[in-house]
Every structure is written in C-alpha cells, then in structure tokens.
From TrEMBL:
The keyword Glycoprotein does not apply. The keyword Hydrolase applies. It holds the Pfam family Nt_Gln_amidase. Its EC number is 3.5.1.122. The lineage of its organism: Eukaryota, Metazoa, Chordata, Craniata, Vertebrata. Monomer. Keywords: Hydrolase. It is an enzyme of class 3 (hydrolase). This is Protein N-terminal glutamine amidohydrolase. Belongs to the NTAQ1 family. It catalyses: N-terminal L-glutaminyl-[protein] + H2O = N-terminal L-glutamyl-[protein] + NH4(+). PANTHER family: PROTEIN N-TERMINAL GLUTAMINE AMIDOHYDROLASE. Mediates the side-chain deamidation of N-terminal glutamine residues to glutamate, an important step in N-end rule pathway of protein degradation. Conversion of the resulting N-terminal glutamine to glutamate renders the protein susceptible to arginylation, polyubiquitination and degradation as specified by the N-end rule. Does not act on substrates with internal or C-terminal glutamine and does not act on non-glutamine residues in any position. Does not deaminate acetylated N-terminal glutamine. Residues 7-136 form the Protein N-terminal glutamine amidohydrolase alpha beta roll domain.
C-alpha cells in the first residue's frame, strides 16, 4: 500500500542533519503488509535499511514533534498553497498534482508568495544580505573571505 504522509517531521532521512528531522510538506512511503511477519516500509529517502521493518521505522522515523523549534510549528500552521503555481497560464497542470488535497489553513488558501518574498515586511522569516547571512550563520563576516577562497 502506498501512503502519503502530510505535513510531517521524519527522522533518519538522507536530507536530514545529525539527529534532526526533515519536515516534509508530504512524503510517500510504500508499506508491504506481511501477515506472517513484520510489515516492511520502503522509503527511498530514509537512512534506515531498505526495506525496513515497520516496527523499526516507527520507532526511529516517527517521533514527537514537541521538541521541534517553534518557527517550524508556525510554518506548518501558516503555510497554504492552492497549487496555482503548478499550472500553466491556460489553467492546465505543468505536472500532475499530488493526490492529496492542497495544504490550507483556516484563514488562507494561498500564501506561497509571502514565504518566498524578499520584502522584509512581508510574510515569515528573515531576509538577509550575503554579509548578514554569513555573519549570522558562519564565522566569516564578509564576502571577501568567501570570494578570495574561490578558484
């Protein structure tokens, strides 16, 4: 059976860092139900064995989200997409849409542009200049140290 997991944090993912989860808008796994033994999960993005027993996958990949940083909860509570960005000007789909309903909140059906806006007064998050970004997230506080190390 194919399962689509919506708005879910998963641990032990290849794109994760250390013991931190990856927060997927949606994620697809295959569950092979075996009546005589443990069911198997096929997750192409997991660092766990492939396939992996459902018992192990359930223990290692699914955990409480109570320790996830509050801004991620805010994202999951505020993000909405009606999928209009996935359509051509004539209204046809660029690619087939996911089978699950669009992600919406009680207040909003579409605010994707607010999440990608470069206007600091719009949406969520912080817009940085390159120097601000480097100063905030690395020990390098100027672009010259980065550009001088390039070949």
């Amino acid at each position: 059976m194919l399962f689509v997991l919506l708005q879910i944090p998963l641990w032990k993912q290849k794109s994760g860092h250390g013991d931190r989860p990856v927060i997927w808008d949606y994620h697809v796994i295959l569950l092979h139900v075996r009546p005589e033994s443990d069911s198997l999960v096929y997750d192409l993005d997991s660092k766990l064995s492939f396939p992996c027993s459902l018992r192990l996958y359930g223990t290692m990949a699914f955990r409480s989200d109570c320790h996830i940083r509050p801004e991620y909860h805010s994202f999951l509570l505020n993000f909405a997409s009606d999928r209009s960005h996935m359509k051509n000007p004539d209204g046809t789909w660029k690619m087939p849409p996911p089978p699950h309903p669009p992600i919406q909140t009680a207040e909003c059906q579409m605010n994707l542009d607010d999440f990608i806006s470069m206007n600091p007064a719009v949406g969520w998050g912080t817009v940085y200049s390159l120097d601000q970004f480097l100063h905030t997230y690395t020990e390098n506080s100027t672009t010259s140290s980065i550009s001088s190390s390039l070949p």
